[in-house]
Every structure is written in structure tokens, then in C-alpha cells.
Design goal:
Number of helices: 19
Oligomer: single chain
Radius of gyration: 26 Å
CATH superfamily of the largest domain: Glycoside hydrolase, family 3, N-terminal domain
Number of strands: 26
Bound molecules: 1-deoxynojirimycin
Strand order of the largest sheet: 9-6-5-4-3-2-1-10
Helix content: 25-40%
Largest sheet: 8 strands, parallel
Structural class: alpha/beta
Distance between the termini: 61 Å
Shape: globular
Strand content: 15-25%
Number of domains: 3
């Protein structure tokens, strides 16, 4: 291969460069100044729409490239390809790795038939700040939950053999600590101790690498002064030397070019040198490698051997996907149509939406009786089909079930009145729809308030400083509840919102995040008791935005204030708000009545080569079968570094029939007690630990054990 041909493998462009096709791209678009004759060398394509588009581009490329090296087609398949399932934050709320596996397998089957070879997933950026719009792509504020869900996705995306066309390659992102952007403002700086990084932010990336993920994407942010893509500590010392990652690294969109705007590269050539030496194999959507790499090689600043190694990694990936035998990987428009949005896939998406919707509050109003005659659906989301959330890939609004449709499907004989009442737009003050809404509420037997933030208010580039319900939705809720007490709200959101006002007036609240294609059917089932809510809060819901970041596993302080009624002045507290969030991590109600009867430890002391068996007995004292998320937390009482006040060490989602009692068994081993000490050694220390079952800030049963 010539140097140009090799460099071409290291560049990714969108379909517009190769054919007359329309496509949505993220990130700044600019004319890259790449010579048309060079295009036949390009190694990969970002975001082709479907199988038809892939076939057009790949066929043209194979005819023009004398080396006959197929292009890789990569796309953001984040929570579904055509059948859209709930956003990742909601899947975190499901606390159900098997469900995540099922959803992911279905999505990659569809994506593969649609001509996708690599998905930019899983995204496992640990996040604590609800202002950051991309929390919708994460599983929330717990490193264990994030790691488990990330690893499950990698396995489900890739399967056992990448040649299997029901699977594609995964790309874990965004290393590192993108979720810690200062003040929750997307793309913002991250300054963080190594100890904090290793304890909370790095484990999920590492879990994905251990699960065998093929590719990795560094983050946009600077990390302790150096943008990740050029940050030798994270990209080389940690990723390659320590974790042994040997896969392909791809830049985020325009991230190589942004080394110039970050002010650490004077020009494109310098940016190319920094990124390439940082270990970035493929540059996405900018032309710095095109402009600079050849000269850098000629000048001896980059070794040909290093270029060859990067090309080899990319060719190996193409080979392992079977592209040299079949550049189309059996994708076709016919297969895509046959595989996508089948009844079976819709059923998975519906179950996923049911199992990832959290019942935040219920004074007994829910579930509504299926015998109600008149139902009022009030609020800006009552008929909305824009409930799939950001990154809905090829999901189409007209294929998404709204709440109104879902309720009509479930209760075809009910009289349903739909009133929007107000807008969900930021800054809207229009109350002209209130009168008709109140009338509808007063006339109905049951009222469903359909509220939330628009889907375009979360996701990339969508940070907010006020994370309440936009516009006059709280006011709408107030007058509707005053008109009819038999009211429940369903909330759509890409982040934890401040729901204190709504909580104080509304008898019942279901939080469905963005539930995907089958959202309306799932919500109808939950509202009317066909399904039983079983999800739990994956990220604390603040009372006020000023608490952000508020997270359950925060370190102990010297002046703790755990009790919100304790008003002694010299404590770590606010004058105008309690410390606890409105809904803590792990909170979530059910229509069943789960009672924790006991927690037995088979021993209270153990050594590093032993284990403790913990048996938790839970009874479903209610009248409905249900699923409970049994959560085990610990607190290290005395250690050489300050430890979190509580940390989740294990969980299991179990189905318990009405009247049934189940025993859930957990094991505690020494590695579960390890932490990064002040000198960044990963150690455990002998001593006493507190243990509890329940959810964050709410122990049901407590005990202690000791590592000797
Ligand atoms: C920007 C996003 O940060 C990243 O997550 C995504 O994979 C790429 N663009 C490609 O669309």
C-alpha cells in the first residue's frame, strides 16, 4: 500500500463524500478540502442511513479501490436501530442486565441487516450532574451498575464471533470522565484526582475492555490539562500499558481538529501528530491526518512502523468482521425490512419500557381501574410521538406509540379526552389552554398528566441550568389535581428533573424517561395495572438544581448532616434546602408490597481468602406478582482514605409472586472491599464494615462484618 492508501484507512467521512445521499451528522460541518481522487482510499464511513445507502457506497468504493479493501460502516446505534427501546438512563433504572442484553441483541440484528459494522456503543461515562444532557446516555451514578451494563452490552453487540452477521463490533466511549464536565456544561473541562478517576470514572471503561470491546473513542474534554485524545497518561499508560487494550481507537467527531481550538496544537499538522502519538488510529470527520501525517512521516517524526501498526489494527477489524469475503456482510434492504420492527422486537421494546419506568410516588391512586369510563389525558406529551429520546437512530415518529394511542389500544371502549393544556418548551408562559384542561379533568373519572422536558433538551450539546419541568407545566398540574384528585402524572425526561413541586401536589408519579417506540403501550399497561412497575432511580433526583452534583455515594465529611431536620449551623448543609435528594438512588415503588424479613450473614468475620454469604429474605405481602430490586450496600467504617457514606456492592432483580417469599443470596469477597488509597494503590484494609439492604439513604436491615 502507498502512504496515501495507508493514511486513507485512518480517515472517516460521512456518506455525503461518496454518493449523493442525504444524512444527518453531528458536530460542526465544514468543507474539509480533501482531494476527490483521495476518496477511494478512505477506510470508513460515519452514519450511513440504511442498507441501501451502504450498498451504493460500498459497491462504488470496491469498484474504485485497486486494493479492494472494503470500507467499515459505523453508526450511533445507541438504544435501538429501527425498533427503539428506552434510553440508556432508563435501562440503568431497570437494574436488569438480562433485559439490556435482550434489547442490545435485537438492535444489533437490525443494525447489521441495515449495513452497520460498528456501533458507537456502549457509552459508559459515569455521571453525577443532572445538568449534563448526556446523562440520558449513561446508566447513572453508580460505577458497579455502569460496569455491569457496559460489559453486558459489549457481549450482546459482539457475540462470540464478529463474523456472525447477527452481531457487529462495539466501540466503548468516551475515555475518560466526559461525564464530569464542569458545571454539567457539555464539552467542558475536567480536572480530577487520579484517585477519584480510578474509583468512580474508569471502572466501566475497563469492564468493557475486559469484556472484549473492539474499539474505543476518547472524550472531547481536556483531562487535567490535556484533551483526552492527546493525553498520553490516559491513552497510553492506562489504556494500553495497564489495561492492555489492543483494539482500534477512533477520535470523536472533529476532536482531532479541536486540539487547535483547545489551544494545544498550532495547526493541523501539530494536531495530527499529537492525536496519532496519543494512539488515535482513525480521525473522524476532520482532515488533519490528511493534511499532516504524510509530512510527519517524511520528516521522521512518525515512524512508518507506527503507521503500519495502526493500519493493521483497522484491517484486522475488517477481516474479523468478514468484510474481505463479503464487503456487504449480507445486508440488504429486503433483509433490513424483514428484520426490523417485527412484532417480536416491539414486544421486547414494550417490556423494556415497562421494566424501566420508575414509580416515584403513589398514594394508592395507581393503578387505575380498567373499568373507568372517562379518561382525561392532559399535557404536552399526551399525543406526542417524540418520546423516543435523543439518538433514536432510524426510529420513526410515525412508528412510535403515543400515550393516547396506547390507552386507546388498551381500553377501546373508554371515552378519552386529550388536551395539551400547555407547551413543554423552555420559557413558555402560555396558559391559554388551562381552562379547557381543567374542564376535562373535572369531567373525567381518571386524569393522566403527561408532562416532561422535550427530547431535544437532553443528549449531546443539551445542558440545562434549570432542570425543572419547562414552562407552566407545574401550574397546569396544580389546577388539574385541584379539579380531580384521581390524577397520576407520567414524566418524560432525559435526566433527573427537580420534581419537588409536582411531588407535593400530585398523588402519583411515574417516570418513564424516554421509553422508545412502544412507550405509549407500556405506559397504558403500567397506569392500568396490566404491568407492575419495577424500575429504580439510577441517578439521584435533586430537590433543587443547586444541589448538583448530588449523588448517593459521596465521601464522608467531617461535618456530616444526614438528617434533614438537623439544623445545627456548623454542618455541611444548605440554609435553604436539605442535603438529601428528592428521590435517592435505588428508590422506586411497586404495586406489590415487598417486605424485607431478614438478612443473615453466615459469618461476621472473614479473611481475604474466605467469603461471607449474605442471605436476604423478601416476602411479597401484596396481591400482585412483582419484581423487586434487592440492593446490598456497604460502608467502610475506618480506612486510611475517606470512603463513601454508602456504596452499592451487589444487586439482583427478582420476580416474587404474590404471597411468595424468596431468599436472595449474595457473596462478599475481599476484592469487593478494595479501594484506591491516597497514593493510588488498589487495596483493602482490615476492619469493620457496615452492611445494609434497602436503597440509598434508606437501610431496611443493617448489620456489620469484619475483614481480619
Ligand atoms: C459525537 C458524539 O460525542 C459521539 O458520542 C458520537 O459517537 C459521534 N459524535 C459520532 O456521531
Amino acid at each position: 500500500m502507498t502512504v496515501d492508501e495507508k493514511i486513507g484507512q485512518l480517515i472517516q467521512l460521512n456518506p455525503k463524500f461518496f454518493a449523493d445521499v442525504s444524512v444527518d451528522v453531528t458536530g460542526p460541518w465544514e468543507s474539509l478540502g480533501i482531494d476527490e481522487g483521495f476518496l477511494k482510499n478512505i477506510g470508513s464511513v460515519l452514519g450511513s442511513r440504511n442498507a441501501e445507502e451502504m450498498l451504493i457506497i460500498q459497491k462504488k468504493h470496491m469498484a474504485e479501490d485497486k486494493n479492494k479493501i472494503p470500507m467499515l460502516f459505523m453508526k450511533d446505534v445507541i438504544h435501538g436501530y429501527r425498533t427503539i427501546y428506552p434510553i440508556p438512563l432508563a435501562l440503568g433504572a431497570s437494574f436488569d442486565p438480562d433485559l439490556v442484553c435482550e434489547c442490545t441483541q435485537m438492535e444489533v440484528k437490525e443494525a447489521s441487516a441495515g449495513g452497520v459494522h460498528v456501533t458507537f456503543a456502549p457509552m459508559v461515562d459515569y455521571a453525577r450532574d443532572a445538568r449534563w444532557g448526556r446523562v440520558m446516555e449513561t446508566c447513572g451514578e453508580d460505577p458497579l451498575l455502569n460496569s455491569i451494563m457496559g460489559a453486558v452490552q459489549v457481549k450482546a453487540i459482539q457475540g462470540d464471533d464478529l463474523r456472525d452477521t447477527d452481531h457487529i463490533a462495539g466501540c466503548v466511549k468516551h475515555l475518560a470522565a466526559y461525564g464530569a464536565a464542569e458545571a454539567g456544561r457539555d464539552y467542558n473541562t475536567v480536572e480530577m484526582s487520579e484517585r477519584q478517576l480510578r474509583e468512580f470514572y474508569l471502572p466501566a471503561y475497563k469492564a468493557c475492555i475486559d469484556a472484549g470491546v473492539t474499539m474505543l473513542m476518547p472524550s472531547f474534554n481536556s483531562l487535567n490539562g490535556v484533551p483526552s485524545i492527546a493525553n498520553k497518561w490516559i491513552m497510553k499508560t492506562v489504556l494500553k500499558d495497564e489495561w492492555g487494550f489492543e483494539g482500534v481507537v477512533i477520535s470523536d467527531s472533529n476532536a482531532v481538529g479541536e486540539l487547535k481550538t483547545h489551544g494545544i496544537a498550532a495547526d493541523s499538522k501539530a494536531a495530527a501528530e499529537l492525536a496519532f502519538k496519543g494512539g488515535c488510529d482513525i480521525e473522524m470527520m476532520t482532515a488533519n491526518y490528511y493534511v499532516g501525517l504524510k509530512e510527519l512521516i517524511e520528516e521522521g517524526k512518525i515512524d512508518m512502523a507506527q503507521l503500519d501498526a495502526a493500519v493493521e489494527r483497522i484491517l484486522n477489524l475488517k477481516e474479523s468482521l468478514g468484510l474481505f469475503e463479503d464487503p456487504f456482510r449480507d445486508a440488504s434492504p429486503e433483509k433490513e425490512t424483514a428484520v426490523c420492527l417485527t412484532d417480536e422486537h416491539r414486544a421486547i421494546a414494550r417490556r423494556a419500557a415497562e421494566d424501566s419506568t420508575v414509580l416515584l410516588k403513589n398514594d394508592g391512586t395507581l393503578p387505575f381501574s380498567k373499568d373507568v369510563k372517562k379518561i382525561a389525558l392532559i399535557g404536552p406529551f399526551a399525543e406526542s410521538k417524540k418520546i423516543m429520546g435523543s439518538w433514536a437512530c432510524n426510529g420513526r415518529d410515525d412508528e412510535c406509540v403515543s400515550i393516547a394511542e396506547g390507552i386507546r389500544n388498551l381500553l377501546p371502549n373508554a371515552e378519552i379526552t386529550v388536551v395539551s393544556g400547555c407547551s413543554a418548551e423552555l420559557g413558555s408562559t402560555d396558559t391559554s389552554g388551562f381552562d379547557i384542561a381543567v374542564q376535562a379533568a373535572a369531567d373525567a373519572d381518571a386524569v393522566i398528566l403527561c408532562l416532561g422536558e422535550l427530547s431535544i433538551y437532553s443528549g449531546e450539546g443539551n445542558s440545562r441550568v434549570d432542570i425543572g419541568l419547562p414552562g407552566v407545566q407545574n401550574e397546569l398540574a396544580k389546577i388539574c389535581v385541584a379539579a380531580n384528585k384521581n390524577t397520576a402524572a407520567v414524566i418524560f425526561n432525559g435526566r433527573p428533573l427537580t420534581l419537588g413541586e409536582l411531588d407535593s401536589i400530585c398523588p402519583a408519579i411515574l417516570d418513564t424517561f424516554f421509553p422508545g417506540s412502544e412507550g405509549g403501550n407500556a405506559i397504558a399497561n403500567l397506569m392500568f395495572g396490566v404491568a407492575n412497575p419495577s424500575a429504580r432511580v439510577p441517578m439521584s433526583f435533586p430537590r433543587a438544581v443547586g444541589q448538583c452534583p448530588v449523588y448517593y455515594n459521596h465521601p464522608s465529611t467531617g461535618r456530616p448532616k444526614r438528617n434533614d431536620f438537623d439544623n445545627y449551623r456548623f454542618k455541611s448543609r444548605y440554609l435553604d434546602c436539605g442535603n438529601l435528594p428528592l428521590y435517592s438512588f435505588g428508590h422506586g415503588l411497586s404495586y406489590s408490597d415487598f417486605r424485607y424479613e431478614s438478612m443473615e450473614l453466615d459469618k461476621k468475620q472473614f479473611t481475604a481468602d474466605e467469603k461471607i454469604t449474605v442471605t436476604v429474605t423478601v416476602r411479597n405481602a401484596g396481591e400482585r406478582d412483582g419484581k423487586e430490586v434487592v440492593q446490598l450496600y456497604m460502608h467502610d467504617l475506618v480506612a486510611s482514605s475517606v470512603r463513601p457514606v454508602q456504596q452499592l456492592i451487589a444487586f439482583e432483580k427478582v420476580e416474587i409472586a404474590a404471597g411468595e417469599t424468596k431468599q436472595i443470596v449474595f457473596e462478599i469477597t475481599e476484592p469487593m472491599l478494595r479501594f484506591w488509597d491516597a497514593d493510588c494503590n488498589y487495596i483493602s484494609e482490615a476492619g469493620e464494615f457496615e452492611l445494609f439492604v434497602g436503597y440509598a439513604d434508606h437501610p431496611y436491615i443493617q448489620d456489620r462484618f469484619e475483614l481480619i
